Amino acid sequence: MKRRNTPTKEKVLTILKSQDYAISHETIADNIIDINRATIYRILNRFCEDGLAHKIVAENGKQYFALCKTCEVKDHHHNHLHFQCNNCEKVECFKSEINISLPEGYSVGNFNGLLSGLCGNCAAD
Amino acid sequence: MKRRNTPTKEKVLTILKSQDYAISHETIADNIIDINRATIYRILNRFCEDGLAHKIVAENGKQYFALCKTCEVKDHHHNHLHFQCNNCEKVECFKSEINISLPEGYSVGNFNGLLSGLCGNCAAD
DNA sequence: ACTACTATTGCAACATTGTCGCAATAATAT
DNA sequence: ATATTATTGCGACAATGTTGCAATAGTAGT
Fold first, then answer.
1. What's the whole-model pTM score?
2. Domains of chain A (ranges plus CATH)?
3. Over the stretch A57-109, which tens digit does the pLDDT of each residue have?
4. Which chain A residues are Cβ-neighbours of B113 within 8 angstroms?
């Protein structure tokens, strides 16, 4: 299936690029008016399929999306931790990769690792 | 707030104990008839508050609960990974703890780490 | 430019999940 | 027994993410 370039897709990508944090569909909806919720999800999921972004599931069950800056380019995966601040609720990608070893016979798929607590800014207050 | 012993709570605890995997409220509802969904969640959350169980958020955003067998007793935390099979959907606790280091100024809270893929049984097929 | 193909979008509807307020019930201590 | 209050059930709710369908609009080929 070949991707097409659409204004909507470009807008979502622009927002993703402009953010230092992983964002939820809500953030996107707040930044673009007149874009359907279903469309946002479809675009974001397409980005994930294409290896452009990755998805983080937060402790509240919500999905956050971030561009793949810290991810390995070759042998693409997302074995880094994320951090969500309980106060400002921002989700950020950590640089350091996690070593993952699976039991015999298991096959790897995805990794979703999230720490929570207080970020540098919020803990200082 | 002092806890009380109720039949409902005991039933939920019995089910938790009988399972080798982390379970969702659904599993409990399937095993006990006539118990309210809200009540299940309240009981499970109370178990978590009391350090009896811990909560795992899966990639579908659903909450799973497991008794604290593998968790550290002293200085109680849950720094172990979990694994959910994409086929049988079971969620299990891994034994090995993860080393977690936070950036300067951050304060730790919780860790939610989930691997997904195929478990030993399902990968064999 | 025109056309055909089909990826993408918007809309509406839906299932599901987890939470909350409130009144009724029942566990606990006196 | 009685008083206190933790727990439960019920109903309602908001929110999230997905899907089917018809309409729209990229894209490639002529």
1. 0.94
2. 7-124 (1.10.10.10)
3. 999 999 999 999 878 777 788 899 999 999 999 999 998 888 888 999 999 88
4. 111-114
